[in-house]
DNA sequence: AATATAAATGAATATTCATTTATTTATAAA
DNA sequence: TTTATAAATAAATGAATATTCATTTATATT
């Protein structure tokens, strides 16, 4: 029995993300993907049931890897500032290591795949996140607030900085590079906002 | 000479946004748009050069309207808290009045139209924004910081709240509705972060 | 009322799309 | 070495795509 070529499988995943990030979902097609991988388009249908199955599988796989990277060394019983710093560190690290993934996840979030994607990979992740928030509220480290408010203040600035970094140049026309210094400067502002 | 029907032109714009928001760019087509408007697809090519021209024109037009709504009653010489509150108010108002536009702009930002879109409608807008920041820094109302940091802390939480609101339910599973109370609670945290 | 002209259209075009079919190729097990 | 089986492919399928063409329709100007 002929065995499946793992390099080819890997290549398909990588090129799929590359193409989608470059051209958006509207410019992505099975034929283009096959051509970019120098394989037959029929081979894609051996690996995946159909186009949606391909996209969702690639997305979920990467989503799980990101979720793992995010909770690395993190414990919901940590103190507020210590825990939040760890989460910023993890996200920053992941984003620097995987510069295209942020765009990819942004595209998924604003596409018709949103529901299935979010439903899938966030399962365990969101539990640990809200447990942390409840802990630090109960310990009186931050004021009580809805989860959505906490999340928006605690993480939205970070994601926005990464987006600025990806775009290279921001609204001022000057180039922008997200450095360690800028990251922790922003982190300190966020802590100041949330800390009692 | 026959005159162009303005209702029809308006209908095309409105339906285009509706369809794109509902199905994403990947599910949008000229034929579907024509059918949704009950007009001939050839008519679309009287109004616009091609598909890209249509999408970009609709996007830019809406972008300019949003930019106008954002600086309504705002002056870059305002004091920090007063000016920022006005901007939050304007954005909140616009988003409540145009619930689909946020999704639409998010889709544009993560699509292949990103560059042309951002380049277009932000021209005047970004000048007034960075002038405001420089003023409040010079007056010593906030610490000096890169524009990207200021923007990310000042506005990213707001945009994130609106996104949670649009999605209806967030990570906790409970439904989330962005109310005045939640908005200004978040605003106060952001002010706390930035104010000296 | 006649004319000129752009709007609007229905039907056609060529191209690209996702998916399938028939066939060949590689390899694990016999 | 033979056999069985899944991998891999080239080519083909019909449906959907963006765009164009030939024609008709409405209206402002003469």
Describe this protein with a few key phrases:
homodimer; 196 residues; mainly alpha; Arc Repressor Mutant, subunit A; Tetracycline Repressor, domain 2; 2 domains; globular; DNA-binding; HTH-type_Tx_Regulator (chains A, B); Homeodomain-like_sf (chains A, B); HTH_TetR (chains A, B); AcrR family transcriptional regulator (chains A, B)
Give the structure's gist in a few sentences.
Two copies of one chain form a homodimer. Chain A contains ten helices and no strands.
Task: Give a structural overview.
The structure is a homodimer of 196-residue chains. Chain A has 196 residues and is mostly helical. Chain A folds into 2 domains: 1-47, Homeodomain-like (Arc Repressor Mutant, subunit A, Orthogonal Bundle), CATH 1.10.10; 62-194, Tetracycline Repressor, domain 2 (Orthogonal Bundle), CATH 1.10.357. Helix content of chain A is 71%, strand content 0%. Chain A is built from 10 helices and no strands. Chain A has helices spanning 6-23, 30-37, 41-47, 51-70, 80-97, 101-109, 114-121, 123-138, 147-167, 180-194. The termini of chain A are far apart. Chain A binds chain B through residues 23-28, 103, 106-107, 109-112, 122, 126, 129-130, 145-149, 151-153, 155-161, 164, 170-172, 176, 182, 185-186, 189-190, 192-194, and chain B through 23-28, 103, 106-107, 109-112, 122, 126, 129-130, 145-149, 151-153, 155-161, 164, 170-172, 176, 182, 185-186, 189-190, 192-194. Chain A binds a DNA duplex (30 and 30 nucleotides) through residues 1-5, 8, 29-31, 39-43, 45-46, 50-51.
């Amino acid at each position: 029995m002929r065995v499946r070529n793992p390099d080819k499988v890997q290549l398909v995943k990588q090129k799929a993300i590359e193409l989608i990030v470059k051209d958006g979902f509207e410019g992505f097609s099975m034929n283009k993907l096959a051509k970019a991988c120098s394989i037959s388009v029929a081979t894609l249908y051996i690996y995946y049931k159909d186009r949606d199955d391909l996209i969702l599988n690639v997305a979920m796989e990467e989503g799980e890897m990101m979720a793992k990277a995010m909770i690395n060394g993190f414990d919901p019983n940590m103190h507020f500032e210590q825990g939040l710093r760890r989460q910023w560190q993890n996200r920053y690290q992941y984003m620097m290591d995987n510069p295209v993934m942020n765009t990819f996840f942004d595209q998924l979030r604003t596409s018709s795949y949103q529901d299935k994607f979010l439903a899938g990979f966030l399962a365990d992740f969101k539990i640990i996140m809200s447990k942390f928030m409840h802990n630090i509220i109960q310990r009186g480290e931050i004021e009580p607030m809805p989860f959505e408010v906490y999340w928006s203040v605690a993480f939205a600035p970070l994601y926005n900085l990464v987006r600025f970094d990806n775009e290279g140049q921001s609204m001022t026309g000057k180039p922008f590079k997200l450095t360690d210094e800028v990251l922790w400067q922003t982190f300190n502002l966020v802590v100041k906002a949330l800390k009692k």
